[in-house]
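Form 7-S
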Amino acid sequence: MHLLKRWAPFVSLAIISFFLVLPQILTKNSIIGADYIFHYNRFYDAAMQIKEGNFEYFLSFYGFQSSGRIVNALYGPLMAYLQGGLVLLAGTWFRYQVLSNFVMYFLSGSTFYYLLRRHGRCQGVSLVMGIVYMTSYCTLYWVFRQSFTSWGAALFPLTLLPLKDFIEKKEVHPVQLAVVLALMVQTHLFSSLLVIVIYFIAFCFVVTTGVTRTFFAQLTKAVGLFVLLTANIWGSFLSVYLGNTLQPPFINDQMAAYSIDQLGKNWVLYPRFLLVILFAYCLLYAVRLKHLSTYSHVIFWLSVFFGLLSTSLLPWNNWVLERVPFVTIIQFPFRFSVPFIVLGLYGFSGQIEQLQWSSKKWLLVAMPFCLFSFGQAIQETITKLAEWDHLSESKFVRKHTYLLTDNTSEVKESFHDRNLATLLTLVQKSTPDYLPTNKELTGNRYDIYAKEVLFSTTKFTKRVRSKGDMTVYWQAATTGPVTLPLIAYHQTELTLDGQAIKLNTTEQSAIGAITVTQQKGQNKLTIHYQESWAMRLSLWLTLVTWPAVLLLVVIHHLRPTKNSQVP
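Output:
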């Protein structure tokens, strides 16, 4: 009976998640967001590596036009491979979209529920807040736009698990803290920066009130374990950035427009009563101000802090023009909405817990909110799915996106095609992020990438070989220079017709595309990324540490304890 009560909420969340994706299952329609092509290329590359057993950690041999560019190694590599596994399991892009949406709903609801239960909230409050969070825009941002911020948001509640003991008891649980932070870094780097900000503020607060040597010893252990769990990330950044100048993501000089009080207002409109909850949280905090714990005060002001950062009240545009450090990497202030919403709902749950309502009263109050939140998500999903039946070419061809067919029906059919490469061939996007720019860039980098990689005038055949090699074949009518649709980095090794050539003697374009001298007739060039011994060591450290730590966690949870915490 206890086991049934313990797992019933997760079963409920799974059922709700199923009904949230049911409209898509029934209509067999897909939702086209702004970022789907970029991420589908990432996941396709990882999926094909898994399928063919040809693992190339750095270069893209399958996705991104098999251009040999680096993306996944610098953008959540662990999550990219997990998503690649989902792609293989699904078999088509339509089924992947349904499956990933289901996982997103269930994961976000479950992590928030788990956080509240571990921090002493009752089951009813925890479940209701889990449902509210899983139908918030933190989750729907992936469903409607395929933006990866949502995957960071789904894991965000887990990163707060160690925070209560960190502040209240001045205790650090090294394994727990290291694992949740490392999981976030392996998923979404910007979200992990937000988590680090939270713990840095908490650390500053705790230190000012006095801590023991044990606290610093445990914190040192957590940092050491965290470094091992994320060694591949730091190794990748050092390997790539030390020898190359990379093209950063675009700088948004109109940042203020993308705040929650302007174009990013959806973040506080899903569900519609979210602002009511946050306002009620402020009222309850003000009323019970003198009776709250230090921890409750910290949570409230952290939520206010990130809420302020989410708005246009700050001079974001001026800061961008003045090139204030770190501001340019933010791009959209609404990204701060994730910790704002998570901390706000988390703090609110603690306030209403103190009201000590009966289960019946709580159910009567909460049920309408759950139904409304669920209904709004369903209604908006149906609206988005209905757009599929009337999609025009303009819907597929967004900025810097190209449709390589005149028939949009062909693109729609490719979502159900078991050949996953079909969609990525028909719809291609010029995305220059992380390309090497070792020479002065003149012209639009998006257009240069389209010209040199997407629409190369010479016909090339690319074949992925074992041991992390890819060979490019082409037929030449004359001898002379030719620019290949391949990106080369400092560590990229090139072999032209059996002869090794040095990159520093080879002409490269402003985005790293290489030019070689072709011979009349058949030509072939093999591309390979030479990892340093330090990079290989960092990969092995991560690969060995994760299974060892997860095994330790499982053993710890299976071992019976006298004073078990709330599950």
